[in-house]
Amino acid sequence: MAHVALMSVPLHGHVNPLLGVAAELVARGHRVTFATGADFAPLIEEAGAVPVRYRTTFPGTDNRGRSWLPADDDGRLAVDAFAKERDAALPQVAAAYTADVPDLVVYDTVTGHAPLLARAWGVPEVQFSPTHAFPAGTRGPGVGGGPGALSDTVPCIVAMPPSLQFEAEKTGPHHTYVGPVTWRRHAHGTWTPPPDGRPVALVSLGTTYNTRTDLFRRAAEAVRALDGPDWHVVVATGHGTAPEALEGLPPGTEVHEWVPQVSVLARARLFITAGGTGSVLEGLTAGVPLVVLPQAIEQFLTARQVDTLGLGRALPPQDVTAQSLRSVVREVTGDPGIGGRLARMRAEIARCGGARAAADVIEARLPTDGSRPPGAAPRTSAAPHGSKERLG
């Protein structure tokens, strides 16, 4: 079978969806390597793939309180951070594959070194978007330039249902919407639900913008203030906030740095999230109503779609107060029609196909007779070198 190389910047929201793809490809008999930061090696191995580690410019998961971006970034700092990562990763990943050039490269759409390597090696490529896809014809620093630019002729797997995609009508025929690519990982342990059957709410602000202790507190207090049954609140702080920083939360609240999110959502009746695409999709797959507190970049797009589709409510940061958050939580938990809308979304997600559909796109791109895609250079272990201009 083929050697498929997956490549991604070492960020949870980018690596995690590709793990499900890795596991599916391995199950189909392919040899899968996965080039990213060393922190993700245990998860990659759990998926059955071989980690290819490189030294990253992003902070590791043990850097508590240090995020790779400030919460008020408008996207420009993110572009600079991805360019810096591209330049650091390119020679390392090229060297790692010198004696083992893959048959095909699948890469996250902000992983700038990957298309450069695929084109230098003369092997087919497949893009993978874990969030809103770039519209067809998009150009600019956010999608690269020169030899490393994203191409409208390269298949792009979008790990979202089409109805959640912002301005889906502007994406092109090379985009395939496969929905969330789920994979039940075990690295974050287990979770035990409350024994008395109380309704459960999960509060998690993701892995990037998770230093807002005030938001964690207000969210937990808003749920505990609901009328009716006594709610049980699970707070997952991520590495941005130490659990002990949230001492004094209302009774019936448990606080952890990490939880097995899919397991908690299977029992949850409310999910308060920052709106990271992976978290939103896990909530929707479980049929859980959402309260989205977007903080940056694509979270605002996702929050808008959640609100428009009636799958929950969005509350932008400038509007978050103790009173407004209590009001939104009460509105979502009391909405009699939200269950039906969530059921329709779950049905759409199921139709998309997930990991199986993603693997089908990848296998269709594999050469069957040793040929290269049109216009590709002969297959070689050579890697691009030279100035930053040549890197795109």
Automatic annotation (TrEMBL):
Keyword Transferase annotated: yes
One Pfam family this sequence matches: EryCIII-like_C
Record-annotated Erythromycin biosynthesis protein CIII-like C-terminal domain positions: 232-350
Gene3D superfamilies in the cross-refs: Glycogen Phosphorylase B
Keyword Transferase: yes
Name of the molecule in the record: Glycosyl transferase
GO molecular function, a single term: transferase activity
Start and end residues of each stretch annotated as Disordered: 365-392
UniProt KW keywords: Transferase
